[in-house]
Amino acid sequence: MTDLTAEAPVLTTRDGKPLKASLARALRREKLRSLMLIAPLLVFIVVTFLAPIADMLFRSIDNRIVAETLPKTVVALAQWDETSGNLPDETVFQALHDDLLIAVEEKTHTRLGSRLNYEASGMSSLFRTTGRRVKRMEDGSYAEQFINADKDWGDVKTWQILKRFSPPYTAGYFLNAVDAQVTPDGIEMKPENQRLYLLLFARTMMLSLIITFSCLLFGYPIAYLLATLPLRYSNLLMILVLLPFWTSLLVRTSAWKVLLQQQGVINDALVWAGLVSNTDRLVLINNQTGTIIAMTHILMPFMILPLYSVMKTISPSYVRAAKSLGATDWTAFWRVYFPQTVPGIGAGAILVFILSIGYYITPELVGGTEGIFISNRIAYHISSSLNWGLAAALGVILLAMVLLLFYVYDRIVGIDNVKLG
Amino acid sequence: MRLKALILATTACALIGGTAVAKDMTIVSWGGAYSASQNNAYHKPYMAANPDINIINDESSNEAVAKLRAMNEAGNITWDLVDVVAADAIRLCDEGLAMEINHDEALAPAPDGTPASEDFGPMIVSDCYIPQIVYSTTFGYRTDVAEWNGKEPQDICAVFDLENFPGKRSLEKRPINNVEWALLCDGVPKDEIYDVLATDEGVDRALAKLDTIKDQVIWWSAGAETPQLLADKEVVIGSTYNGRLFSLIEEQDQPVKMLWDAQVFDLDGWIVPAGLPEDRLAMVMDYLKFATDTQRLADQAKYISYGPARQSSAPLVGKHAELGIDMAPHMPTDPANAQNTFLYNYEWWADHRDDLDAKFQAWLTR
């Protein structure tokens, strides 16, 4: 071996290859092997989690339906000057007739109507009624026949909408999601009485912060007790923490309804004790108070468990040492014990905050009108109005907000400081 | 040895049995008392007549619209028949997610030979829709409210009258029905309501009327909420579906009465998802013909207080299967109850739902 190294300037392995390359190859093989070990999970996550999310998010700008359903009309409309105040000329109407004939055959015209109805009321029935008439139209003077079928075709606004939403991608959903709209004069905010989403985003943030803070406030002492009590008591306490955690979310939320409503247990007890009069019972539910109370309770275990696991590792001798050196109880807690629990607080806070920002079942049931979150609107657009584009745009904004907060959090607290156990 | 033979025999039986009951049909509905009534009136007799078909109940009608779209995009339709309200049927038909039906060909005629399309008449609000029942959204009120000094609500405007009828109310968390009632009680004639609502001022006017009771309203999103709130004395008057109030009053014996005034009729019925394979479609159409004939629709009213959608079924409505009470006076379509009804304008709402909903939600959160 020593001879070999002495003779050759480059280190080689036994089969004569340079050692460096051989090492790199071995390492690469090892990496590949570990990659193959996690490959099933990776593929699973990409296929069932990342791809659907990407697909859903893409819908927030996707507007291909207009050009796909009315290809000729879109081309013909490009020549039309929408600011002129005149209706498009006959060629556009003829193109519309040709496109609609095919669309009616494939039954896609009503789908386009639903899409455009998100932008202007009346589009849905416009396409439905025109679809019924278009087969019976005769050659020539299409403009007149279309306006006969539905007078909205004689309105310049209809054509302006059609032209504005003919490109394959649109910012319309995103503008809608921040209470803005495109008008012929450019982008502007919607009228005061139609603004909704910015308020809901702000409220979601605010309430989530309050919920996180109250979880910390109530969870901290419980976690402390869990970590310091003798085993037989702390085990019992742990069961009390975990039992609600294992109970169905709906059951817990309904239980809060029974407790909090005006004729409910809490109000009855207060009236019985003479603390509030029977005529003005407290309104504890169907408002923000209800959302905060119920969600603090539901998310509490997510705060307690990380705190507990961190507190469990803190040796009691530190506090004893501080006290023996003359610290008061408060100083010993605040200067010695508390800083050591910060990683647990960080983990708990981020868990609770991110979970609560996307919550919708509990706010829907106990939040009334003031206590609902942005996710309630997202759910509505997914399941009722079928406006998936707007739901996706709202989702993208929510995701961006969470990522931004995560970044700020990383800057201030440091993600390395977070400890889950 | 005997044991081995026994095992072999049972396995063989199970295998043969398994192939014999192979045809499953998934029917989607609302669950609860409503699904039970369909099960008793349609599914059980159909399965008894067709032992090779097994009906599976799926209680997903609430999210049917979204799920059907997702299934359609994935190209894998797992449902065979879906129960939806009329507005959803129109939306599904527009989106191309429901199949168009030739009512006269697909459905049985009335016993006197009237074709199905005439027997259902104006209830067929969409080419894809096969109506089953007429239900109404109406109000129930408690009869033991001390603050009312013995008065009882006589008409819909009692809901907006906090002076004579103080207390909390429950209304559905959506504009449909609420804005119509508000305008009606603001003095708009019934036949002009949708014209007024089509203008911005009209919407503002309706919301302004609702503003007068806004702080006394608990908003519901599930039909079971109002009966619960009434039973808990949380509200003194509230809107919900008439069948829910029927079970609250007749089955649970609560001190609650119906206020039929200005009840809004709506429909519930079937749609067939678009894109079913040939064999499953044939199976579904056979079931549909059976389950929507005159007698079957009348049978459903034995179990729940919703009116059959066929004209020819009305005279056949009998007594409640368990309570033994006459069902006719509890039907929303009964002449005594239907003195002042409000017809839901499907076409209008299909156009204005998105716009009005945005305005309504913005108003709610203010």
UniProtKB/TrEMBL annotation, chain A:
Its localization reads: Cell membrane
A GO biological-process term: transmembrane transport
Q: What is its main location?
A: membrane
Organism domain of life: Bacteria
Q: Does the keyword Acetylation apply?
A: no
Similarity annotation? Belongs to the binding-protein-dependent transport system permease family. CysTW subfamily.
**What name does this protein carry?**
ABC transporter permease
Q: What does UniProt list as this organism's lineage?
A: Bacteria, Pseudomonadati, Pseudomonadota, Alphaproteobacteria, Hyphomicrobiales
UniProtKB/TrEMBL annotation, chain B:
Which keywords, in A-to-Z order, does the entry hold?
Periplasm, Signal
Q: Where is the signal peptide?
A: 1-22
Q: Which InterPro entries match?
A: SBP
Alphabetical list of Gene3D superfamilies matching this protein: Periplasmic binding protein-like II (3.40.190.10)
Classification via SUPFAM superfamilies: Periplasmic binding protein-like II
What this protein is called in its record is Extracellular solute-binding protein
